[in-house]
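Table S2 (text version). Query chain:
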Amino acid sequence: MTILIVEDEKNIVLSLKLMLEKMGHDVVCARSGVEALEISRKISPDLVFLDIVLPGMDGFLVCQAMRKESDTSKTPIIFISALSREEDIKKAFNAGASEYIVKPFTPEKIRETVEKWL
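Corresponding structure-token output:
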């Protein structure tokens, strides 16, 4: 399975990438919302981990755009964000999120989420 990580913080990208590769998945990374949309159109990921605070285009807009694309309209999109206010979480689900994980996350939570959606 191919998983797209959309995150601009290098340490988070690295830890997530290592965890997912250890689980046997192919991992592709995007550091901005625009890059995420370009990549998702090329590879049609099986799952997306998406941050909210990104350069240029926030995660809410990325999620809405992915939901409008035929190849990613049904793809599980998991928000991973340090934003933990109820209104941010609601906004993510209104944008089309499948699940919302608040940073910092544990390897167990990532494994459980991947197993749930793939």
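Notes on Table S2: The chain is about 45% helix and 20% strand. The helical segments are 10-22, 33-43, 59-68, 86-95, 107-117.
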